[in-house]
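The protein record quoted in full:

***
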Amino acid sequence: MTEVRSRFSLRDKLLLVMTGVTGAALVLAGFVSVWLVRRSVVESTRDELVRQADALVDFIADPELGLPPSRDGQTPEERQVARAATFGAFTAVLRLVSQVESAEIFRVTPEGTLRQPERINVETDLLADFDQAGLDVEALLAGETQTGVIRSREGAVVWVAAGAGTRAERLVFVLSAAPETDRSIWRSPMLAAGLSALALAVGMSVWFANRLTRPLRRLQAAAGAIANGDLTARVEPTSGDEVGVLGETFNTMADELGRARQTERSFVMSVSHDLRTPLTSIKGYAEAIADGAVTGDAAVAAGQVIEAEAGRLERLVHDLLDLARLDASEFRLHVQSVDLDADLRELAASFARRADEAGLEFSVAGSPLPEIRTDPDRVAQVVANLLENSLRYTQEGRAISLTWTAASPQPDAWPRGAVRIDVSDTGDGIPPEHLPHVFERLYVAGHLPGARQVGTGLGLAIVAELTLALGGRATVDSTPGAGTTFSVWLPI
């Protein structure tokens, strides 16, 4: 299989994602902030211009400010003087208004149209693009204020139009100002703050990506070391989050691999010893027979030894094959309806003679069992292995018993109930420190050597794995000095 590797490490991807998301968020927040600030400043500028327009209207309407009064019967020359005075007063006041940057004053003809404007530029002519045709002159002279915004490449220009005057002169004026934000937004501290925030976000992203991926890199290095055969490699969890739990799980896996490797080595050494002993006997007796050193009754005895050791080798090979099939999930069960009560009694009868030859008392007791579906041959193999184990570790003059009964239903495991099979003995028992390991391969043979050399030392391991394959479980209970009971639970 071709190994596919990304050009970017997880750290690089995290850094790119976090920086991209942060940058996008900052840009979006910046545009929204600029839009809100611009809108707020435009509204504020508009309100200020409206206030100043209202003040100008009040100024014109105030009779005490010295404007020439409008009287009936004025001569044209007097009316002209009054109009000039009104217009001049307007111009003088507009130049004093600080908020206004540009203004236009329109004289209104008797027909209600606007004449050419008089422009008053305080700073710059912001009303160059203003369209006076959009003004409602009659509404303005009636006291209404009209506002608007002119958009250009240079920014927004807020304008306010109002009307005022006397009978001698009617005027419409337009005040304008450019909000400060439109001309200096990109030179304002907001831009510097945004760039600083982006730089900080990049720095935080680098720090966070390094912090997050550092334990993963350590985990990768430790996994590589284990793959190369160093089963002592471990990682030190530095946090309680998912990455820390992953590190602890990795260490547990490494511990289990180490134990499995040690068990495998012990297993190979034990099997090698178990193979070497009968092979040595077979070879020695065969050579003696071939050389003619053993004749007559001695040759018959040698043949019996060779036969017994060959049978032992055959059992060991069969047990090894069974374990190999169980490990490879290639073990097949032949499930059928079984009268387990009859099968167990038949099996017990075959062991009664062997128990008697070993000087052991053997008892059998069982209550009637319901018909169950299971593999009868494998159940017989499980019980036979347990009986073999008891024959090996129970001293002469003591007792072995085989009992079975129908257990009560267990909703969590077997809703229809189970069958319990017990093989008990009155031997010396198993020390508590060995109980968790009795179903491991060759553990009992290596740590608890027995008085009789029967079986292969793999029987209890086969019991545990076969019972599991049958859908049940195997347990052990032992009291040192009082005996041991092995129990097998099989679902109905």
